[in-house]
Known about the structure:
6% strand, 2 domains, mainly alpha, 4 helices
Amino acid sequence: MDGFTVKNASQFLNSGSYLDQKSLRVDNTGLDSSSSISKTKDLNGSVTGDSQVAGKSFSDTLNDAINSVNQLQKSSDKAAQDLATGKTDNVADVMIAAEKADIALRVMVQVRNKIVDAYSEIMKMQV
């Protein structure tokens, strides 16, 4: 977007035109500010951004995800041990369990990296 500046950003946002990232086509939805505010209000509980929202807290969600990854790692280890000791001969199930555990761990590492990056950005902000 050549020539996209802060001055013409408001004109761009008010026009309601934006690129659909998946198909790279222009989508004119004609959004106005009142509908955006109401959707934000629905998502956040209020426009002011109440910190308590119905459901689990962020730390509970993160702990559940960590426990899930840990459980996948344990089941992968048990499957590999069963294969090594001869309790099972299904190599495909062992490989699937190992890959699930590997993918879950990689996702968890990326989530951790994003959290650390976000924390670093917040700490860089001047008060």
